[in-house]
Amino acid sequence: MEQDQDTDRTGARVALVTGASRGLGAALAEGLAARGYHVLAVARTVGGLEELDDRIRSAGGTATLAPMDVAEAPAMQQMAEAIAGRWGGLDLWAHCAVHAAPLAPAPHIDGKDWARSLLVNVEALRGLIALFEPLLRQRKGIALFADDPRAGQKFFGAYGASKAAQMALLRSWQAESATIGPRVVIATPAPMPTAVRARFFPGEDRTLLSPCTVEAERILSAL
């Protein structure tokens, strides 16, 4: 992790955002920083993280950048250990990392895209839950996720199946944690002009979509 000089404040509220370089993840990171959280921003895109850090700093917030792939289990293990050692826990974890496989008829889904969808959207998430659940319980924290229901829609076989499996896992965890914590929140944002959506609907009028900042503010306010 690229350490910010202000991150050794043991009393700071700490928010981890996985998939923070763009879209809803970036908007949530900025919204959390504006609310006084120190943001741990994880994504593969270094440039996007650096731009996010510039925006957070210019608004008076602080962040630590972690250019990592959530599907790399050893890297995520190292991150969890670093968080435990420095802050002792997490107040909030917002997960927005996703693999959006190209649209394709079910018989023509590429095997590599299928495997990557299941790895990132299901298996990696399972591992992250195991790593971050103890950190969230230390601070009675919140785990926040975004649903995008596509199961059964034409050409969404890989993305829709992996997201449906992801939601099944999360709703089980949500039910299991209802009385003991952490609090698991599953939000369903309105359609947003994200890069993922642009790949799915390239001819869409993006001016009709809800900005990511608006959806992030709505979700965070509801928490």
Automatic annotation (TrEMBL):
Keywords: Oxidoreductase. InterPro entries: NAD(P)-bd_dom_sf, SDR_fam. Gene3D superfamilies: NAD(P)-binding Rossmann-like Domain (3.40.50.720). SUPFAM superfamilies: NAD(P)-binding Rossmann-fold domains (SSF51735). It comes from the Bacteria. The keyword ATP-binding does not apply. Belongs to the short-chain dehydrogenases/reductases (SDR) family. This is SDR family NAD(P)-dependent oxidoreductase. It comes from Paracoccus spongiarum. The lineage of its organism: Bacteria, Pseudomonadati, Pseudomonadota, Alphaproteobacteria, Rhodobacterales.
